[in-house]
Amino acid sequence: MTLTEEQLASYRNDGFVLLENTFSGEEIETLCLALAEDQRVPGPRLITENDGVTPRSIYASHTRHPVFERLVRSERLLGPARQIADDDLYVHQMKVNSKQAFGGEEWAWHQDYIVWRDADNMRAASQVNVALFLDDVTEFNGPVIFLRGSHRLGTLERAASARDHGAGHIDPHEYALTPVELAGLVKQHEMVSPKGARGGVLLFSPQIVHGSGTNVSPFARRLLILTYNPVSAAPTPVGAPRPEHLVGRDHTPLQIDRGRFDRL
Amino acid sequence: MTLTEEQLASYRNDGFVLLENTFSGEEIETLCLALAEDQRVPGPRLITENDGVTPRSIYASHTRHPVFERLVRSERLLGPARQIADDDLYVHQMKVNSKQAFGGEEWAWHQDYIVWRDADNMRAASQVNVALFLDDVTEFNGPVIFLRGSHRLGTLERAASARDHGAGHIDPHEYALTPVELAGLVKQHEMVSPKGARGGVLLFSPQIVHGSGTNVSPFARRLLILTYNPVSAAPTPVGAPRPEHLVGRDHTPLQIDRGRFDRL
């Protein structure tokens, strides 16, 4: 699939664009079954909520499960990302953030790129985030909230540094914007949360300020987020790199797959 | 003001009705100044968030501050409530729930009446809740979420009993519906959260199931909630009643005041 000029302009101006009904319900079912299989195996790639049990995030399923291995090459995800980046891409990071029904927790207001810059020596904000709705996203189950156009502000520097966190997962909380900063930003950049049925695809900039609230509804909000990075911009770690499930090591240019990922 | 037949039907069928732009911005400013004055005085009527400092609720400001004393007689609040109850009314309870910017906390899913029944020996669900938006209510600042039509289910009994909590404020958490119950209810009763500019008035049934999420936005969501009760249905406490700021003792029929509450 190809983004229209209007969709490209939205991405450039707003920092995000939503492509509704990109995957079928049947395809999403296949992905959710694969996700459940992958979540069953404990390990450092599985991050839990504060209760220590409920899955919050799982990383790099595409390195373990054939369905996800094929998904990251899907023309419907890789295609638009290549169009935006105008370059060959590889998977820098893949995760599923599962915001559980009844109490899935907040994500602090943050930008993505600064974390990868500090933790992984990523030199430019050239990534493209591609999020796939595995559940219907509504106003009730903790949708991602963007500050429209805030990606154009560039990197908002923090006092904290992820350079000290080389070993693992970094929660955005450590890179959170302060209430004072955010209260200022919303005067210029309105809050907006793209919503839609499962199967929708949301492209967003690694520089856009975003966060989300809790999920008090009886409906989970599982969000698969792929971060593609240009092969030419692959980072060179300073010292020991973070684990491979957080920082993709395979920089081979991904080839677009026009087949169905659920027909292996 | 008088509710239309359509508005009355909404209240009966859905369990709520929203009256937009009922108070002016200037009037809301007056109320917020009065609220700030009243919140400055500590005491058992002031309930804080888990941090022990931030105001979560304040009760019975109408018994202390002339602006609120007059507000509860306002034709724009008391009028529609009388129309629904078709009876003389008094104030059973008045509170302001302040859901602060950046972290105002959740309210568990609950019904109101069962708490008053158990704690105060209220014999019938004849109350009318009248909520006044002191701030713009948006999808981002933790709006009240209703299960449409759930008031028609009557009282959903709990194992817990508020009879043991005679002394003070009862958080809805103690009367919360379980995830299993709620997951069942939403199949028949869709979630809906009325939103609008400050100055709007939201009438809702004491039997409707409702809750709300956190406020992750930079905008507070202060909600004034008046609960009127028919004079003929005033409860007779069993044993020591809860404090007067939680259970109104003055059962004198309220007379409608058509003047401006902010011109004292």
UniProtKB/TrEMBL annotation, chains A, B:
Q: Where is this region: Disordered?
A: 234-264
Mind listing the GO molecular function terms for this protein? 2-oxoglutarate-dependent dioxygenase activity; iron ion binding
Cited InterPro entries: Phytyl_CoA_dOase-like (IPR008775)
| Biased composition regions of type Basic and acidic residues, renumbered to the chain | 242-264
Pfam families the record matches: PhyH
Concerning Gene3D superfamilies, the annotation shows: q2cbj1_9rhob like domain
- Top-level taxonomic group: Bacteria
Q: Which PANTHER family match?
A: ECTOINE DIOXYGENASE, PHYTANOYL-COA DIOXYGENASE DOMAIN CONTAINING 1
| Name of the protein in question | L-proline 4-hydroxylase
Q: What organism is listed for this UniProt entry? A: Streptomyces humidus
